[in-house]
Design brief:
By secondary structure, this protein is an alpha+beta fold. It has six helices and ten strands. The radius of gyration is 25 Å and the shape is extended. This is C2H2-type domain-containing protein. InterPro entries: Znf_C2H2_sf (IPR036236), Znf_C2H2_type (IPR013087).
Length: 178
């Protein structure tokens, strides 16, 4: 909030100095863009510690972490109780409760609630397998199919761990040279 007040409400407060020249900027993003563009500075990379995905700003990394790893879902659908990270996601979801299906597939004539659902469905007809399992390489037309498939891998890992816990330690060979 302090950054917001400083940048937008304190006119002319250019407190961020370029590390290469005397030019000053109102915020860190503008300073960073200048340093990269004018001085060839490397583009900073902020890496997610949970999944390794890289971002070009600390803010993007923070949003990613809250959305995908902390699973914050403060916006709750009044119809079904499903939680969403932001209002836009929730509004998109609320359309599903209207039951008005105005988007029709021109191939099989099925109707869908949203244009996004129809686009996703059309990939089935094109056999567009754009989602690949990172574990086994299987490909899927829809992300939800990949997610269901990935859940099977996760269950398999949990089962393996549970079975490993039940193994008697006397069955594990001891190697004295280690």
């Amino acid at each position: 909030m302090k950054e917001h007040e400083r940048v937008l409400h304190l006119k002319g407060s250019k407190t961020r100095k370029c590390g290469y020249c005397d030019e000053r900027f109102m915020d860190a993003v503008r300073k960073q863009e200048h340093e990269v563009k004018e001085h060839g500075a490397p583009i900073p990379q902020f890496s997610c510690k949970a999944c390794g995905k890289c971002f070009d700003s600390q803010r993007s990394l923070k949003e990613h972490t809250k959305h995908f790893h902390l699973l914050l879902r403060p916006h709750v659908c009044s119809e079904c109780g499903k939680g969403f990270y932001n209002k836009t996601e929730m509004k998109r979801h609320l359309v599903k409760h209207t039951k008005i299906k105005e988007y029709q597939c021109n191939i099989c004539s099925k109707f869908y609630v949203t244009a996004s659902c129809l686009r996703s469905h059309l990939k089935i007809h094109d056999n567009d397998r754009g989602f690949t399992c990172e574990i086994c390489g299987d490909t899927f037309v829809q992300k939800k199919s990949l997610n269901l498939h990935a859940a099977k891998h996760a269950k398999s890992v949990v089962d393996d761990l549970e079975n490993a816990d039940s193994v008697d330690s006397t069955e594990i060979p001891y190697n004295a040279t280690e």
